[in-house]
Specification:
With 632 residues, the chain is of the alpha/beta class. The protein has 4 domains: 225 residues, 3-Layer(aba) Sandwich (Rossmann fold); 73 residues, Roll (Luciferase, domain 3), CATH 2.30.38.10; 101 residues, GMP Synthetase, Chain A, domain 3 (2-Layer Sandwich); 87 residues, ACP-like (Non-ribosomal Peptide Synthetase Peptidyl Carrier Protein, Chain A, Orthogonal Bundle), CATH 1.10.1200.10. The chain contains 21 helices and 24 strands. An 8-stranded mixed sheet has the order 2-1-10-9-11-12-13-14, sandwiched between helices. Strands 15, 16, 17, 18 and 19 form a 5-stranded antiparallel sheet that branches. Strands 4-3-5-6 form a 4-stranded parallel sheet, sandwiched between helices. Helix 1 packs across helix 2, helix 6 crosses helix 7 and helix 9 packs across helix 11.
Length: 632
């Protein structure tokens, strides 16, 4: 087991120190709201402890947090970890995914918004877990949780005893086989990693970070939020990446840095004109990049735009920051830099450490590395060798100590920084009554690095098209896990051993993945194809061309949906695009929405025609009151 260093402290102890040292300094910020100070952040931590105590929870309890990204999610996640073992959950997970995490992590309570009636509340009620509700208040400082305590809890001042060896976060990842793995991170793991990140980019209390990353991954949680808070700096919390909001915050908060995945960096570079118009003269002090490989060309373009050094780092859930290019000194293109807080080496298949320049598997050990997966002896036996943790990434270390990653030994699909286990997609497809075989695999993507594709073999005498299969999977998995392309084949290529080699499927199934060109016919199809062409920079787009296969990602998808909704006066969202990614199917979804609105309009007109003057006036008054409430 990894021993905590003598200078390690718990998250709560370090934040209490910050509250005493700089009580009135801003900690959490959000556009259009007053900041939450370090003193106020500590009060929120104490208030949540009292709520936990009143509910019979202790410092050793497991508490899940499922909140949409923003200042409240940041405050609740950090406050929960300060008082118990925090289990962050992606708020878009479906019932089966939530159930798996809550049961596997032995969760005893969940923290959710008072108006969240989704899968987490449903599963928590079914499992008889305690539910702690927060009540976000738009007029209160950013991050205020609005917890209402029962009378019995108001006088509870006994602090929870949290040591550096206690578990702070219980994260979830997937191994190379797709088997889910539970990663317990101690306070020492998390705080030492966050402090190392802060030191690596010279964070001080004068810095301000813009966070657009989800807080159920360590990149946003440890790399952006906790590193800033432990340095006494500010964090501007956004719900997601939106260029206009991002650049507005850069200007309004005089942001000095941000950290993101390459997909976000690419969107920022593509929005250069907007940046210069919204934040003229602004410059970042440093930009950090991790979670997937940063192309050298993109790195150069980003540095030119932000006028700041771009520091590429390498990390993973089990070890957090493993390596990082230096802020001051040589940053080698294509390298993730020298070792970070832990030791790093390259080993051969027998676990022998290799000399500089020799390729092999990257391994790591030290105070930021988890001690073991929970309840997974097989996974631990495979993942640890001679005291080293195996990353399953292939690479080399040059004579200067710089790490170069040359490939992945895993089958995990890295979709723009989101790690997806293909087996999970296989199982979702196989649940369809028409599917006999299914295999998911990675395909190259110009902006995400990799996207998800799948091949299926249908049962005899069964018929099912790509759109129906995608809609089926969308009901079972988070939208980013749904394959952009599903091809129906008569047989899935296999090796001589009878096993499927996922790594080779993209090339072997290339002919089936290509779509036969067909010209759009209707006006909606033509306008949709035109938007695809303009936003994706494609010279020609056919009826069956796939938005994601052409290079689309979630950031471009938001721009597409904004244009479509403005043009047609409708309200389609990301799930509809994931379910209908071709010109043909998305145009059909648009036409269906238009027809539905027209039907509603006709019914409303008919209803109004049959109403008395008094009823019409009452209806108009109700609509006016509703609009007023929405504005406030």
């Amino acid at each position: 087991m990894t021993e905590a260093r003598d200078d390690a402290k718990s998250i709560g102890a370090l934040l209490q120190d910050q509250a005493k040292k700089r009580p009135e300094r801003a900690a959490l910020c959000a556009p259009g709201r007053q900041p939450l100070t370090y003193a106020a952040l500590w009060r929120e931590i104490e208030q949540l402890r009292r709520a936990f105590s009143a509910g019979g929870l202790t410092a050793r309890s497991r508490v899940a947090v499922s909140l949409s990204n923003g200042p409240e999610a940041a405050c609740a996640t950090i406050a929960t970890a300060s008082n118990a073992a925090c289990v962050p959950i992606n708020p878009v997970y479906r019932v089966s995914e939530v159930t798996d995490i809550l049961v596997r992590s032995s969760v005893q309570a969940v923290v959710i918004s008072y108006d969240d009636n989704g899968p987490v509340r449903e599963v928590a009620a079914a499992l008889s877990l305690r539910i702690v509700e927060i009540t976000p208040q738009p007029v209160a400082p950013a991050g205020s949780l609005g917890i209402v305590l029962p009378r019995s809890a108001r006088d509870s001042d006994a602090p929870f005893d949290r040591s550096p060896e206690d578990i702070a976060f219980v994260m979830h990842t997937s191994g190379s086989t797709g088997t889910p793995k539970t990663v317990p991170l101690t306070h020492a793991n998390a705080t030492l990693a966050a402090q190392h990140i802060a030191r690596s980019i010279d964070l001080t209390e004068d810095d301000c970070c813009i966070n657009v990353l989800p807080l159920f991954h360590t990149h946003g949680l440890i790399g952006a939020v906790l590193s800033s808070l432990l340095a006494g700096a500010r964090v501007v919390c956004h719900s997601a990446f939106d260029p206009e909001a991002f650049f507005g915050s850069a200007r309004d908060f005089n942001a000095t840095w941000y950290t993101a995945v390459p997909t976000v960096h690419q969107a920022i570079v593509a929005s250069e004109a907007l940046y210069r118009s919204l934040a003229p003269g602004h410059r970042f002090r440093v930009v950090r990049s991790t979670s997937s490989a940063l192309a050298p060309q993109l790195c150069a373009e980003l540095e030119a735009l932000t006028q700041a050094p771009v520091v590429e780092a390498y990390g993973m859930t089990e070890a957090m920051q493993i390596a990082s290019n230096p802020l001051h000194g040589l940053r080698k293109p294509g390298s993730v830099g020298p070792r970070a807080a832990a030791e790093i080496a390259v080993v051969d298949s027998a676990g022998n450490v290799q000399p500089a320049g020799v390729s092999g598997e990257i391994v790591v050990r030290g105070p930021t590395v988890m001690s073991a997966y929970e309840a997974n002896p097989e996974g631990n036996a495979q993942s640890f060798v001679n005291g080293w943790f195996r990353t399953a990434d292939q690479g080399r270390i040059d004579p200067d100590g710089y790490v170069f990653i040359t490939g992945r030994l895993k089958e995990i699909i890295n979709r723009g920084g989101e790690k997806i286990a293909p087996r999970e997609i296989d199982e979702a497809l196989l649940a369809h009554p028409a599917v006999a075989e299914a295999v998911a695999f990675a395909v190259p993507h110009p902006t995400l690095g990799e996207d998800v594709a799948a091949a299926v073999v249908l049962r005899q005498d069964c018929a099912c098209d790509e759109s129906a299969l995608r809609a089926f999977v969308l009901k079972r998995l988070a939208s980013y896990k749904v394959p952009a392309m599903i091809t129906v084949v008569s047989d899935i290529p296999k090796e001589s051993t009878g096993k499927v080699n996922r790594a080779s499927l993209s090339a072997r199934l290339a002919p089936q993945l290509r779509r036969e060109h067909s010209t759009p016919c209707t006006s909606v199809e033509r306008s949709t194809a035109a938007m695809f062409r303009e936003l994706l920079g494609c010279p020609e787009v056919g009826l069956r061309d796939n938005f994601f296969a052409l290079g689309g990602d979630s950031l471009v998808a938001i721009r597409l949906l904004a244009r479509v909704n403005a043009r047609h006066g409708i309200e389609l969202g990301i799930p509809q695009l994931f379910a209908n990614p071709t010109v043909e199917t998305f145009a059909s979804a648009i036409e269906t929405e238009i027809a539905s609105l027209e039907t509603m309009h006709r019914e409303l007109v008919t209803r109004i025609a049959q109403m008395t003057d008094e009823e019409v006036n009452r209806l108009l008054a109700e609509q006016e009151q509703q609009a007023t409430r929405s504005m406030h």
